[in-house]
Structure formats: C-alpha cells, structure tokens
Amino acid sequence: METPLLKEALHRSCWVQVLVDAPVRERTYTYRLAADMAAAEGDIVCVPFGGQSVGGIVVGCLEELPAGLDAQRLKTVEAVLGSGFFPATLWPLLVRVAEYYLTPLSRVIEAALPPGILSRARRRLRLVRPVSPMAEWGLSTGAKAALQFLEAQKSSDLSWRFCVQQLPEGQQALKELLARGLIESYFAAGERVRPRTRQYVALTGGPSGLTPRQREVIHCLRRLGGEASVEQLVEAAHTTRSLIQNLDRLGHLRLFERQVFRSAHHAVPADAPKILTPPQQWVLEKLNTAPPGPVLLEGVTGSGKTEVYLQAIAPVLARGESALVLVPEIGLTPQLGDRFRARFGEQVQIYHSALSEGERFDGWRRMLTGEPQVVVGTRSAIFAPLPRLGLIVLDEEHDGSYKQDRPAPCYHARTVALWRAELCGCPLLLGSATPDLASFRAAAEGQYLHLQMNERVAQRPLPAVEVVDMREELDRGNLTPFSRTLQQALQQMHAAGRQGILFINRRGYSTFVLCRSCGETLRCPNCAVSLTYHRLESGEHLRCHYCNYGRPQPRHCPHCRSPNLRYFGAGTQRIAAQLAEQFPALRVLRFDRDTTARKDGHRAIIEQFARQQADILVGTQMLTKGLDLPQVTLVGILAADGLLNQPDFRAGERAFQLLTQVAGRAGRGEEPGRVILQTYAPEHPVVQAASGHDYRRFATSELTERRALGYPPYEQLICLQITGSEQQWVIAAAEALATMLEGDGAFEGQLLGPAPCTVERVANRYRWQLLIKNTAAAAGRARLQDLLALYATPPGIGVSVDVDPLRL
Ligand code: ADP
Ligand code: ZN
Ligand code: ZN
C-alpha cells in the first residue's frame, strides 16, 4: 500500500542510470537517489551490486521511473563521490557521439576513459586529521570502534571494503563517521593502478638549537625555495635520509607525501621557434585573426605544417589554455612528439594506447588539473579531459587510423573533433598535403576556412617522380622486384652517401603460397584469406594477417601431398632479403608491424636510421605518416598496383594519398629528392595525378564522380554488419533485416545488399553486410535506430552498426 507520504517522496525522488563496474552484459542499472543526494551525468557513484559496494558512473538522470521497473525493489545509491573524471564540456560530446554513431553511451564512455579508471575504481577513505579528543562524543559504539580502528592503521589511505570487512558494523559505522566529517571518502584506482607518491620536505621554522650539520641542511632547503623532494635535498645538501627524518621528528622541517605523475617521456634537446617562411607567416596571421571554427591547412609535404602548429599553440599556452594535437599512429608519435617536447618541454604529454595503464591513468589526471598543457595523442585522445581547450590540431587529417573500426563506437576522431571544437568554442586546425575529400569539399564550399601552403620550406623543390612501367622490365628479362632505373638510383644514392626508403604494401616474406601441382593456395582454416609466409629466427611460418593463426611451413601441399610449393607476392621481408643479396653494400632496416612490435620499437628503428646506421628503410604504410628524415633523397615505390585495385569506392583516394605521402618523404633536406614509382598501370589516373603532385586535379575529378554516384561526401553511408558462425543463418538474418528495413515506409534510405563482406569469414565468423544510403540525415539515423531496436536478433547472430564506414 502506498501512503500519501510515500507517494510524495517517490514523486520527489530522482532515479539514475548507472554504468556499473562489473563484468555483466547489461551494463547499466537504475538506482534510487536518496532525497538528500544530487547527482549529475558523469558523476562517479558508489552503488550496491551483487552484495558489495562497487563503483559506477551516472549515465542518465531520470525524473520518472521507466516503465516496468518496480520502485520498491530498486536499490539506493550509497554515495555520490563527485564528478571528477570529465570536465563539463566533455559530457555533451560523449552523448553526441553515442547518438550519432547509434551506440550505447556506456560504450562511448568506455572508449573515452583510460583503462583502469572505471574498471578498477574503488571507494577509499581517509581519516580527517587531527582527530580532536571531543570527536567521539555522541558516536555509537560501532562508530567509536571504527574510529579507534582507523587511528590504529599505519596508512592514512584505506580501502572502504577492507574497513567494512574488518569492522562488525562496518558500513553503518563508516557512514556515521562520514556524516560527522571524521572521515573523507573518495574514489581512486584499485590495486593495479595507484597514484604514485613521492616524499617531499618543507621548512617549518621550528625551534632553534641545531647542530652545524643540521643547520646546513636547513640552509640548503631554504636555497631550494623552502620545499623539495627528499632525493633532491639529500643530493643538494650531501646529507642522508635519516638526518632529514630526524629533523622532521624534532619539528625543524616537515616530511609529507605528494602525488607525482608517471610518464614515459624521453629527454629531448630544447628547440627555439623558427623564423617563419612567408607562407607560414601568412597562414599563422590568418589563423590568429579567424573566428573560431574549422580550418583546413592544405600544405604540400615538407611545407612546414608542424612549425605552424607549434607557433599556433604558443599563444594558447600563454593565455593559460591547453591544446590538443592528434596524430595518426603510434609510428609517428615519437618523432613528432619529440618536436613538441623540444618546444614546450614538460608542458607536453604524449597520450596513446601503447602507454602502460599507470602512465595513461596519470596522464588523464594531469589533464584534469587544468594547468595549461599540450596533449599529443592518437585517436582516443580526442576525449582528453582538458577543461580549458584553446585549440585542436589534427595532423594528417586524411589518415584512416582516425576512424575506429569495430568494436563500437565506430567513431571518426575528425568528426568528433568538429563537435568538440564547436562545444568548446575553439578553433580546429586540420592539416594535410592530401586532405580527405570530405574536408576538401567542406573547405571548397566555404564551411571551413581554407588555407594553403604550396611550397616547401626554403624553396626546396618537391621530388621529381619517375613512373616506371614494370611490364617493360619483364619484357627485358628483369625478374627482380627492382627496375633498372631503381637499381641505378640505389647505386647513385649509396655513392653519394645518402639514404633511401623503399615502400611495399605488405609485410611478411611472401603474400601467398601456391601448390604448382593442384593449384590450391594455402589458406587460413579460420578465415577466407590466404596465409602469408614469414621467415623467422624460429623457422619458417605461415601466418594469417586477419586472425593471427600460425603454423609451421608445410613441406608438402596439404591437399595433394605434392612437394611443389611456390611462393608469390613479395612482402617487406622478402624485399629486404633480396636487397641485401643484390646490393650487399647497402645496410637495410625493416619498418613494419613485425619489427616494431616491442615497446618503443618505432623509436628504436627510426633513431637507428636517423643516426645513419642504415642506408635503406624498407617498410609498409607506416612509412607514409609524417616521417621527417632530411637525409633521405630516394624513395622507391615497389608496386603501386596493389593499392589501385581494391574493391572499395575509396580505393583511388587512398592510393593517391599514400603515393603522395610516401613520395613526400624524399628531398626534405638540402638535397633534392627523387621518387621512382613502379607500376604495371602507368596510365592509371591516380598514378598520373600522384606523379604530378596534383592534388587539385585528383580531388576535383574524384568529387565529380562521387556526386554522380551518390557516394560520400555527398550522401551518408551506414553499414550494418551481420555476423555468425553458420553461413546460412547469417544470410537469412541479413535478408530478414533487409526486408524489414525495406518494408518500413518511414525509412527513406536506399538499401544495397545484403552481400558478403570483402573477406567473408574471419576467425570462423561469417560476415555479411547491408549498406544504407541515408538521405535523411539525423532523422534517418534515428529511424534506423528505432528499427534496429525492433529487430529481433536471432540467437548466435551479431548486428553491428558503422555510421560513415571507411572501409567496405
Ligand atoms: P610538413 O609537416 O608540412 O611535411 P615539416 O613541418 O615536417 O613539414 O617541415 C619540413 C622540414 O622543414 C622540417 O625539417 C622542419 O624542421 C623544417 N622547417 C619547417 N619550417 C621551417 C622554417 N620556418 N625555417 C626552417 N626550417 C623549417
Ligand atoms: Zn597441391
Ligand atoms: Zn585467419
């Protein structure tokens, strides 16, 4: 029976949806908020869950109880531990990402937060000192016992759960102490990531009467500004820890602990701002006077875009605001990160997923302090919790690694950056030599400010690109992967004491193994792809680049037992080996996912090459991303064809960008560069445009075609992927979904498919897709979301949504 009073209480109370820290499928639960509690989205709360107290984050505040939930059975939030992990401007951004990408908000939060904050966040408590003798007055027996227990503990920072377990009436007693202000409760990382502290010492001006040695230490501390870390003082005063501890006991100075932030930064020599070239100067003036909004900086390779970023950031820091710089991949971060650190020193933080959990956790907390800083990071750094953001820079804004593939949220950091800049009212600077066609179109139509730098710094010429027809090489009996032009160029380069880069699309030794007797290729048992042959120290192996399945190289064909196996398609490993064989004098380094897998592997190889301990760098796409190596005069592109023939409407755009970017690594120093582009299709328009460094021609013709076909950036695509372990069920589910979408009168989008994905089977799951051309913008996405919610997904089938897919 509901009494009128209870009814009123129910009416007043508010409900919150909480993303709990527990390994459960349904991640969010509804809780009651007690009358004296207030909570906002993004707050960290403590909630009862499965018999214990767990951490959680408020993802929704509800005025009314959702239908189907029984108010009587809902548990109450134990404590609201305050906001803290998101600055106010970030929350609406996360909500917008969830809405646009048709993803649950909880997934977006998980993608945004560094690991270890939510998943291992634990409630902790601290005794508020000093405890006055009167403190116990009026406390219950349980609370008194708790107070004595806490005072007896050595550590001042305790786990809430531990205390509850140790005390007979733990939960109740602690709440009483909390209400009386005798303890503070807060959230911190759990066992795996703890804030790190260091011992510090400060002057207190305590009683006099010191020995000469003690006095010397005090003087030294005064010279250090009255405060220093213990290590610093030990070294500066040539003293010992025990002497300092003694002075602390005597009250002459005070020892205390302070949190420090872990970081994996390397030392870099400082670097002063360069005198800008006239185009750089012009761009910077435009930037500084432009109203907030997106800016596309289209600058040819080597035009000095990084220097523009650096000088655009300086005034931001001077105003007390922070800057966020996104870079495509980790391979690029060491060199670029160093350039930022050389300019701004300790104000720069490098943030990416290859950091340790502790480093990421500390990085996040440092951002939250609000002190002006520059965060240089990869895709997920777009969610960096910088409270006062003055500028966002996306370097190489065309790069595909800004898009997150599945799992959801399949967000594009550039799209999110546009929203973030809008929410913060700060400028967004998109830089590239080969802008994404969507950015180019937006700039051309006046939605973005469009700035250009068409020349390299110091009037260095763009490298000359020579296209070599590999069909002719074959006709002349050259069966090596190196054309005669390239061979000569390599020799000249070596004679001149310069360095070179060879680009090849694939890693490994051979891209497939074929049986000459029965014609079968050796395939991955789990995926619909051929296996790649790798030569490792441990022996010869076949490996699947999709699911990482591996097996030793068989001596006989598994189908017909013939020993006649042949290796086709060259990868980085084979090129490196053949290069060493044909040019024994050249020292070769390999730069691909296999050789850079160790922590700091990229840095190690790039530094080795930069120190001229090798003549040639053989590598994959990784090479294309902004490397600045002034000694490189020669770039060889071994087979452009693999890039051109991909079953995707963006293949041309990607190939053009890749070719232009690889070519752009040549001639960045004093010496002009030379590029040799080998292909079986020299007349291909992409090859023509790339060899002429003609972005404009390429972009204009490509956009005309996209408009005619109704492809992005003119129409929005949404890809639904249907997966499952049985092919016929996957197809049936995809067809049922298609029928349902087609039958809905309100849904306007045009439907393509269902069709198998480019690689139909990966890790034993079949994958089919439905492509939707969404002509109704936000209304279309909302309708699709409603329809998907209605679709009864058959058991064993997964449906995932990718809004604006990058790869089909
Ligand atoms: P981009 O990013 O446009 O490809 P970078 O910023 O890497 O080009 O600059 C190319 C090279 O030119 C770098 O070695 C850089 O140090 C140098 N550079 C850039 N700006 C200047 C300048 N104003 N004066 C002298 N050298 C410069
Ligand atoms: Zn065979
Ligand atoms: Zn596989």
From TrEMBL:
Catalytic reaction(s) noted: Couples ATP hydrolysis with the unwinding of duplex DNA by translocating in the 3'-5' direction; ATP + H2O = ADP + phosphate + H(+)
Any one GO CC term of the record: primosome complex
Enzyme class (EC, first level): isomerase
Record-linked PROSITE patterns: HELICASE_ATP_BIND_1, HELICASE_CTER
SMART domains in the record: DEXDc, HELICc
Gene Ontology MF terms in the entry: 3'-5' DNA helicase activity; ATP binding; ATP hydrolysis activity; DNA binding; zinc ion binding
All copies of domain Helicase C-terminal, residue ranges: 552-709
Cofactor note: Binds 2 zinc ions per subunit.
UniProt cross-references to Pfam families, sorted A to Z: DEAD, Helicase_C, PriA_3primeBD, PriA_C, Zn_ribbon_PriA
Residue sites binding Zn(2+) 2 per the record: 524, 527, 544, 547
Cofactors (names): Zn(2+)
Keyword Metal-binding: yes
Protein family per UniProt: Belongs to the helicase family. PriA subfamily.
Listed NCBIfam families: priA, PRK05580.1-3
Identification of the protein by name: Replication restart protein PriA
Source species: Gloeobacter kilaueensis (strain ATCC BAA-2537 / CCAP 1431/1 / ULC 316 / JS1)
